[in-house]
Design a protein that fits this description.
Number of helices: 20
Structural class: alpha/beta
Radius of gyration: 28 Å
Largest sheet: 8 strands, parallel, barrel
Strand content: 15-25%
Number of strands: 34
Strand order of the largest sheet: 17-18-21-22-23-26-27-28
Helix content: 25-40%
């Protein structure tokens, strides 16, 4: 190879079709040599990340492909490669498995390796826009329509702009709220009155009011102003009566009574929502709040949000910003997914190698100094979205921040699958200590069997990501990590009640070729891999019981295969597992697994992919980032989730085909006992596509607000209506109210909250009829602006107020009050 200096290769990638030889995609990568010297030889490789496997036999253009591991592959020049002269291009055409319909599906993070060194860092290719049906549909049977501005207009057609005084003032919707004429004015002279047990809540309120007024209110044990107190609260049935509160605002002052400190905090969050909507953008020394009375309590005790920082790292600031938003909307559980195959994100002082190696991604010969690049993180370690971890001090700060807001952090250390980062880190430890002559120390925390010949491939395409659970060092590792983590919670003064153990997606074939596991199974009289896995779960449960912790995990920890079908594992029904149920994809055959488990006696947290996976794209639109293996989730999809009757809104399967009504009727419904086992619901934000803070906030909001509504408030009245036309009309009316709350109150509040939260601004819908152009948006209250000369709309462009006459190119966008804009349509 003649190695060009600098960034000399230009890449362009295009999906040609998703319907090649059935339902597979055909793509082209065009490589252009921008240097003044030829690119020759076969001793180099073009490395990249792709979430789709490539058929090796299909590669054309003088290259072959090699799957390295995970989502890392490389194109290698073949003997047919004739070289690439200066200024010339070569096209690599290839066929891949399944389909690619989003820009985030494109191969990313390209770099060239030559003689075991990085020869050139290229980065992401130019992506040719997806425009034709065969590029945008998953298969020939895909009936989900491609999102267009016209279709968006139809979806928004039932929405109207409501008068501001008719829009609910508090989200999530309280049990009871009544308002009177007049306001109470919070001024610099207003006291925060509280007893000693509520000092932390008073401090939080003081800081929250300072953020919007610039004034530090004085705190006192007696007097009038804003009074915080504990008292009995009489509410209708609630899943968490200790979180109930009564907020009373009169001309004489404000009184927040909570059934517990957590109830007082909920009342404080409601008071914050009654402050002027734009107060974060325009701080006001005097803050007016309406007179009224709010009596409230949550429906579910568990109201959670999950964040994956293993796949791509999220900074401490990003995490704190998400926690602040959760608190504002009364979410009380933060499921912190700290580890995965692609990264270990928490400092464990007893095992420093976990972050020394496991927190770094980039090119490294033999992965001696960093893990493989993943999700387009690239060859360079520094500055990569795949690199980073929380120091012990930073993690303690996160815990204290969450605890001050009455949010419980539920950490997840994912085992025994999804464990590659830990496995590789402990290999590094093994090699160091072995070289130093300490073989016993080297093997103390070893997580793999070096003689393992098991053949498997995980969902994320890894071949070596499962711990060897037949050796004692695996359990010693788990407890050591737990003890170090538990010490951090104790130092932070944060509750640690539940350990989420992952337990999901262990690939078929794991442990079958491990001499250690096979010998252990024979010694223990185990006749199946399921028995070995049950042993692992029982051992892990014993460790957690020793530390007085609840065993949490994804649904797989509660399932076993019976008669070829997964169902509740009878061995652990009495084990008090807290199971998080994600797989309810319509048409996959496990739609009712959450209800099966709850009815069998398992405690469940509903984490349904079809409504609550916020890493999925908002719409079937190539420019919307995210995955779509579980569908597309607009904010309305999260809002209309019915936890105790998921069938209410189920109409089509993953590809848009009508569901078989007969099959749905045969699925399990929750029994009365089963309903008592539903702890609550949780939204998930997985990290494959969260390459920066902006992407985290775009994918999270405003769907998290809809999640909070469903977790706190009772099911909407339309769930009881049996006639479809009446039910649909009531659904539209309820959604109109919530959508107006978003557009008129919640999104404007977020414009200034935390310096501006980067929520997704919905795109306008457009209707063109007889020369008239009409616009609408899914969050009424957002400004719509347009141009007629082909230029990009700005915050100074014409404001849409009514349909207008136009010919030629019309461009429109929605704008927030801070001047941010949606994509242009």
């Amino acid at each position: 190879m003649t190695q060009p200096a600098g960034a000399q290769l230009q890449l362009k990638w295009e999906c040609l079709t998703n319907h090649y030889e059935g339902d597979h995609f055909l793509a082209e990568l065009t490589i252009t040599n921008l240097s003044d010297v030829a690119l020759t030889g076969q001793d180099w490789a073009l490395c990249f990340n792709s979430c789709r496997k490539i058929k090796p036999e299909s590669v054309q253009g003088g290259f072959c492909v090699e799957h390295v591991n995970g989502d890392l592959s490389r194109f290698i020049p073949s003997v047919e490669f004739a070289g690439l002269a200066a200024g010339e291009s070569v096209v690599i055409r290839y066929q891949g498995l399944l389909w690619v319909i989003n820009e985030t599906d494109a191969p990313l993070g390209f770099y060239i390796v030559y003689q075991n060194e990085i020869a050139e860092v290229i980065g992401d290719p130019e992506i040719v826009p997806f425009s034709r049906p065969e590029q945008c549909n998953r298969s020939l049977s895909d009936q989900v329509p491609i999102m267009t501005s016209a279709l968006r207009f139809e979806e928004n057609k039932a929405l109207t702009l409501l008068a501001s005084h008719t829009v609910g003032k508090i989200t999530p919707t309280p049990l009871e709220a009544s308002w009177a004429t007049g306001e109470f004015l919070i001024t610099a002279r207003t006291l925060i009155v509280h007893s000693v047990p509520l000092a932390k809540e008073a401090a939080f309120l003081r800081a929250a009011l300072r953020d919007v007024s610039g004034v530090e209110l004085q705190r006192a044990s007696t007097g009038t102003g804003i009074t915080l107190k504990i008292g009995a609260i009489s509410v209708a049935e609630s899943g968490a009566p200790l979180e109930a509160y009564l907020l009373e605002i009169s001309a004489a002052g404000i009184v927040i009574t909570g059934a517990s400190p957590a109830g007082v905090m909920n009342g404080i969050q409601s008071l914050r929502q009654l402050l002027p909507v734009d107060s974060y953008q325009n701080p006001q020394v005097e803050l007016a709040v309406p007179l009224g009375r709010v009596l409230d309590a949550p429906r579910f005790a568990y109201r959670g949000m999950h964040l994956d920082v293993g796949r791509n790292f999220a900074s401490k600031e990003t995490v704190l910003r998400l926690l602040d938003c959760m608190a504002l909307y009364k979410l009380n559980k933060f499921h912190f997914h700290l580890t995965d195959d692609e990264g270990w994100r928490l400092e464990i002082p007893s095992l420093p190698e976990l972050t020394e190696l496991g927190s770094l991604r980039g090119f490294s010969v033999g992965e001696k100094t960093s893990l493989l690049p993943s999700f387009g993180s690239g060859a360079e370690v520094a500055g990569s979205a795949g690199t980073g971890f929380y120091t012990r001090a930073e993690f303690i700060e996160i815990l204290q921040f969450a605890t001050a807001r009455h949010i419980e952090v539920i950490p997840e250390i994912d085992v025994p699958g999804h464990a590659r980062a830990a496995i590789k880190a402990m290999e590094l430890r093994f090699e160091r200590l072995k070289a130093a002559g300490d073989l016993a120390g080297a093997e103390e925390y070893l997580l793999n069997d070096f003689k393992d010949q098991s053949k498997y491939e995980s969902v994320q395409l890894w071949h070596d990501n499962v711990m060897c659970i037949g050796q004692e060092s695996c359990y010693r590792f788990i407890e050591t990590v737990l003890v170090d983590m538990k010490a951090m919670f104790a130092e932070a003064g944060a509750p640690l009640t539940t350990m989420h153990t992952g337990g999901d997606e262990v690939p078929h074939g794991a442990w079958e070729g491990s001499p250690i596991c096979q010998a252990f199974m024979q010694e223990q009289g185990m006749e199946s891999i399921q028995a070995l896995q049950n042993y692992f779960l029982a051992r892990y449960r014993t460790i957690l019981q020793k530390h007085n912790l609840v065993f949490g995990g994804w649904e797989e920890i509660a399932l076993s295969k019976q008669d070829g079908k997964h169902g509740p594992n009878p061995e652990f029904i009495e084990a008090k597992f807290q199971t998080y149920i994600w797989n309810n994809i319509w048409g996959w055959g496990q739609e009712d697994i959450a209800y099966q488990l709850a009815n069998a006696g398992y405690q469940v947290v509903l984490s349904n992919v079809t409504n609550l996976y916020f890493d999925l794209s908002y719409a079937k639109d190539p420019q919307e980032p995210g995955y779509y293996w579980g569908g597309f989730i607009e904010t309305r999809g999260a809002y209309e989730f019915c936890p105790l009757d998921i069938y209410t809104t189920a109409t089509v399967d993953l590809l848009g085909k009508p569901l078989d009504v007969g099959k749905v009727a045969q699925m399990q419904r929750l029994t009365p006992a089963g309903k008592q086992n539903v702890l609550g619901i949780q939204g998930q934000l997985w990290g494959e596509n969260t390459r920066n803070q902006a992407r985290v906030e775009y994918l999270a909001m405003p769907r998290v607000i809809a999640l909070a509504e469903r977790a706190w408030a009772a099911d909407p009245a339309w769930t009881l209506i049996t006639k479809k036309a009446e039910r649909d009309a009531k659904m539209d009316a309820d959604w109109n109210q919530f959508a107006n709350r978003l557009g008129q109150r919640e999104l404007p509040r977020l414009d200034g909250f935390l310096g501006g939260y980067g929520y997704r601004i919905p795109l306008p819908g457009v209707q063109c009829t007889d020369g008239l152009v009409a616009l609408n948006v899914s969050a009424p209250g957002l400004a719509l602006r347009y141009t007629l000369d082909g230029s990009e709309p700005t915050a100074a462009s014409t404001l849409y107020t009514a349909p207008f006459a136009a010919s030629g190119v019309v461009k429109a966008a929605a704008f927030s009050r801070s001047g941010r804009k949606s994509r242009t349509v």
